């Protein structure tokens, strides 16, 4: 089976969050099921440097008024179609924002063009190759199925929602500029509170919708978590499925991780203390016997980082230290920095994101904090499990499914892997930190928690099998229609 995936980012070439990790790992896991994935990505500078070493596959003369070249690149077991459209993608900054952190003003066009290119490839524009199925990810490529249906193509499309909060909402006046007719501006198509939503367009035209955990699949059917799209999702309940994300066990492996000065496995987890010492030194924190808590995340309200700024003192009360690594909302970044200023030598805030630093934090910290107000799946807690970095998480979405709370029963049964808290409020987070710090004081209990965490299996194997089953159902149906 040949699948065309369309995505705005992919690890290891361009990453802002978990989306890139998923799109980089899932194709490798699917290959075990006889599925060959070719992923269409924008030609950002980091990708073009490699892609332009290869001859063009084809030329697009008019993608919403833009000329583009399609190139092929194979790297780290991934087969990529790179959309080389310099006017749209070859620019400073990140995939979505410029060098000053401001959204690119033409994101509406940049990702409409990506989706249109995906639709044209899926419909047979590339000589000698056509996919059996298309897999789109989030709003940035959700228009692919809209364009396909406008073309009259019946190629099956799976849309995966990684975070419903990001919806690609733009003025309806842009419809003619993205090549769509006025009739798609209706309540049962792309109209969204007087605007248009790229994600809604994908939701109503995809053949199957997956979200990245079964709990989140249930949550988004409610007004609380549905982000204004719960009505649409309820009408497509029969096409909605939760599949928990996995992690790439080769990239995230403390026994072989090139970013760890001291590597370890479940039998040699004591080596973490050497990474911890280096981590404290790197972030100019005082050494001590208490636990080292960390947060590697987007610094946003959704991720609960404002709550962490409020209750961080609980960590220091127990003799602990705290490292925060990430970027996002400037006000919350400032609040965290202000907290760190009140506790010099005990808290560090590192604004930005760096992959080697993220690995070292997991490899040296005792606990990872993820107090999200909502969380479709979450990958940080899975990395924490793999690295014996005990997760402290809110009980929501995929966090509630992947972490077994260290309550008395779970501890007695030796299945606990972390600490959950609810309600998702500062006092709940404070109590969870207290529970983790108390457990850390019992060295035997903590060692068992680490071991149980490291034995948890959140590889892509089971999840990839679920995706393969979805693909199989959709393509079998298409084969029957053809027959």
From TrEMBL:
ADP-alpha-D-glucose binds at residue 15. Pfam families: Glyco_transf_5, Glycos_transf_1. Keywords: Glycogen biosynthesis, Glycosyltransferase, Plasmid, Transferase. Its EC number is 2.4.1.21. It catalyses: [(1->4)-alpha-D-glucosyl](n) + ADP-alpha-D-glucose = [(1->4)-alpha-D-glucosyl](n+1) + ADP + H(+). It is an enzyme of class 2 (transferase). It comes from the Bacteria. CDD domains: GT5_Glycogen_synthase_DULL1-like (cd03791). Residues 284-444 form the Glycosyl transferase family domain. GO terms for molecular function: alpha-1,4-glucan glucosyltransferase (ADP-glucose donor) activity. Pathway: Glycan biosynthesis; glycogen biosynthesis. The keyword Ligase does not apply. The keyword Magnesium does not apply. Residues 2-234 form the Starch synthase catalytic domain. Synthesizes alpha-1,4-glucan chains using ADP-glucose. NCBIfam families: glgA (TIGR02095), PRK00654.1-2 (NF001899). Belongs to the glycosyltransferase 1 family. Bacterial/plant glycogen synthase subfamily. This is Glycogen synthase. The gene is glgA.
């Amino acid at each position: 089976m040949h699948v065309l995936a369309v995505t705005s980012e992919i690890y290891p070439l361009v990453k802002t969050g978990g989306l890139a990790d998923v799109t980089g790992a899932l194709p490798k896991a699917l290959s075990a099921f006889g599925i060959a994935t070719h992923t269409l990505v924008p030609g950002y500078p980091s990708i073009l440097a490699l892609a332009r070493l290869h001859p063009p596959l084809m030329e697009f003369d008019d993608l919403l008024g833009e000329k583009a070249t399609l190139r092929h690149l194979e790297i780290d077991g991934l087969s990529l179609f790179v959309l080389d459209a310099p006017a749209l993608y070859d620019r400073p900054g990140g995939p979505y924002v410029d060098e000053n952190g401001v959204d690119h003003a033409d994101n509406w066009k940049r990702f409409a063009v990506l989706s249109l290119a995906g639709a044209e490839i899926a419909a047979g524009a590339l000589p000698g190759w056509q996919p059996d199925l298309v897999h789109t990810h989030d709003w940035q490529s959700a228009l692919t199925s809209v364009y396909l249906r406008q073309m009259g193509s019946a190629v099956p499309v799976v849309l995966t929602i990684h975070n419903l909060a990001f919806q690609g909402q733009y003025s309806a006046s842009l419809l003619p500029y993205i090549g769509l007719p006025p009739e798609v501006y209706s309540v049962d198509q792309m109209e969204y509170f007087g605007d248009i939503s790229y994600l809604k367009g994908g939701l109503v035209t995809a053949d199957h919708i997956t979200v990245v955990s079964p709990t989140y699949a249930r949550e988004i059917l409610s007004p609380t978590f549905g982000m204004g799209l719960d009505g649409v999702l309820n009408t497509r309940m029969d096409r909605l499925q939760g599949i928990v994300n996995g992690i790439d066990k080769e990239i995230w492996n403390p026994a072989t991780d090139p970013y760890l000065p001291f590597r370890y496995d479940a039998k040699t987890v004591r080596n973490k203390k050497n990474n911890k010492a280096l981590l404290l030194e790197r972030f100019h924190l005082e050494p001590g016997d208490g636990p080292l808590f960390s947060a590697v995340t987007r610094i946003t309200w959704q991720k609960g980082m404002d709550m962490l700024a409020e209750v961080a003192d609980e960590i220091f009360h127990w003799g602990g230290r705290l490292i925060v690594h990430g970027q996002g909302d400037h006000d919350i970044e400032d609040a965290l920095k202000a907290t760190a200023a009140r506790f010099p030598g005990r808290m560090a805030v590192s604004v930005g994101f760096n992959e080697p630093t993220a690995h070292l934090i997991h490899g040296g910290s005792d606990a990872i904090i993820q107090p999200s107000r909502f969380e479709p799946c979450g990958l940080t807690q899975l990395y924490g499990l793999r690295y014996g970095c005990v997760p402290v998480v809110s009980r929501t979405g995929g966090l509630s499914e992947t972490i077994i709370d260290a309550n008395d029963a779970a501890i007695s049964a030796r299945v606990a892997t972390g600490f959950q808290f609810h309600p998702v409020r500062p006092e709940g987070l404070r109590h969870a930190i207290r529970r983790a710090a108390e457990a850390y004081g019992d060295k035997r209990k903590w060692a068992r928690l680490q071991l149980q965490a490291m034995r948890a299996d959140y590889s892509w194997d089971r999840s990839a099998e679920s995706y393969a089953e979805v693909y199989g159902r959709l393509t079998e149906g298409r084969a029957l229609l053809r027959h």
